[in-house]
Specification:
The protein is mainly α. The protein is built from 16 helices and two strands. Strand 1 and strand 2 form a beta hairpin.
Length: 324
């Protein structure tokens, strides 16, 4: 019989655990001895090796000793314990991702303690709190302009939906996007751009989900761009004239200096860096493909219009989202 039993030292060699650890588990009743030697030393059966292996695995997975004892004594089914523990770990992982995202953002942007506190608040908002923040922001940008179903679809396309189990990139994107939505300058600029957009669509009778008159005329610049035509050269006048005439016809306005400045403003609204940043962050949060940036022909026409507006300095007028 003694040949089938192990001393604590033999168990330690077989399992890689220390004698102290095995003695502790024995004292807790998790791995009870099968017998004792004539000298009073504890002896363990062959099942103790498998039991200790299970205990070590469960400890590595983070289970407490009281729960482990119930599992090894078969008082509670292991799948039930595993499911409950996995759920608890999921919550811990989410918290750690939020903390990591905040710290990463703080390190990347050189945030002050006050800014770090704001980032942490934004990262830990509940789903309802996030929804209220975004609804209020979107209402400030789009509210009262249109109630049609198509327009509502456009608003939905601007709505971030942070998943229940976001990855670190999504959390970081949410923190930055939420900060943007709270910025008064960004809000005011986006509202002005949206009003111009909605006014053009109303004048043109354009359905909300179709290309608007300003971006449609960009295609007229494609041949000039392909030919390498300098947008500031006199030879580009004809292209600018055709684009302005098409835009004027679509929105029912006279083709004059004001209209060309309006077309320039509309195109700059569409390509404004802060608007593009919002769309990029939105795509990361929602798991969408990266948004397409304005086509090169768009930039060509902006440069051509800017060169003829008399305001070609310092990158042109700041009329887009976020402009003061």
């Amino acid at each position: 019989m003694d040949d089938a039993l192990y001393s604590i030292g033999e168990l330690a060699r077989r399992t890689g655990l220390t004698v102290k650890t095995i003695r502790f588990y024995a004292d807790c009743g998790i791995v009870p001895p099968t017998d004792r030697s004539p000298g009073g030393y504890r002896r363990f059966g062959t099942d103790a090796v498998a039991r200790l292996d299970l205990v070590r695995t469960l400890r590595d997975l983070g289970l407490d000793l009281a729960t482990i004892r119930k599992v090894v004594d078969r008082e509670v089914p292991l799948p039930e314990i595993a499911a409950a523990h996995a759920e608890a770990l999921a919550v811990q992982i989410r918290v750690l991702r939020l903390r990591r995202a905040v710290l990463t953002a703080v390190a990347a942007h050189g945030a002050t303690p006050e800014e770090m506190d704001l980032m942490h608040q934004l990262a830990t908002l509940s789903e309802d709190e996030r929804r209220r923040l975004i609804d209020e922001f979107l209402d400030s940008a789009f509210g009262g302009l249109d109630t049609g179903a198509g327009f509502a679809g456009t608003v939905r396309s601007m709505t971030p939906e942070l998943p229940d189990d976001p990855d670190t990139d999504q959390v970081e994107a949410w923190i930055e996007l939420a900060g943007l939505t709270r910025d008064p300058d960004f809000r005011a600029g986006l509202r002005r751009a949206t009003e111009r957009w909605a006014d053009d669509r109303a004048r043109a009778g354009t359905a909300p989900l179709r290309p608007d008159p300003a971006t449609t005329v960009v295609d007229l610049a494609v041949p000039a761009l392909a030919a390498g035509l300098n947008p500031c050269s006199p030879e580009a006048d004809q292209v600018v004239a055709a684009a302005a005439a098409g835009y004027a016809h679509a929105v029912g306005r006279p083709d004059d200096a004001d209209l060309r400045l309006r077309l320039l403003t509309r195109l700059q609204d569409a390509s404004h860096p802060r608007r593009q940043r919002y769309l990029h962050l939105l795509a990361v949060i929602n798991g969408w493909p990266a948004p397409q940036r304005p086509a090169p022909a768009h930039d060509w026409l902006v440069r051509a219009l800017r060169a003829r507006s008399g305001r070609a300095d310092a990158g042109g007028p700041r009329t887009g989202p976020g402009a003061s």
